[in-house]
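Subject: Predicted fold for DUF4870 domain-containing protein, 156 residues

User T.R. writes:
Posting the sequence so we have a shared reference for the thread.
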Amino acid sequence: MTTTATTTANETNTAALIHLSTLTQYFIPFGNYIFPILIWSAKKKESAFIDANGKSVLNFQLSMFLYTLITLLISIPIFIYCIFKNVTINEFSDGGDLIIENFNSGNITGMVILAFVAILLFCFLKVIEFILIIYASVKASNGEVYKYPLSISFLK
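User M.O. replies:
I've generated the structure tokens; pasting them so everyone works from the same file.
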């Protein structure tokens, strides 16, 4: 989506910086929220182009957080269920020791596969996020507002 009014070089650079500032998440916890919010809130009243790009960035980051949270909320209970389904714990038998029975390589295979799939899905989300951030910053530097795919519009 291109903007209707001409954008200045300063606006396109600021919009690209907003997109690229989300990459600070790899160095600073929650940097993908802090820095775009700081830049966007400082410049959103000066330009509709910067405002639209800032909202796009924040909507995408919030969507990625939601997708990661959903992945965790699904995989962790399943993982815990697999552990308790395949393990029998006899407390205080034979002198007060905690004994874990039926925990062998056959029972652990399902848990390892589940953990591998969850980690693979998380890594896939992060790689796609990285690629889309770079692509969006290039689009912003060309004067376009990039709408991230699968992004939920939290900010309108």
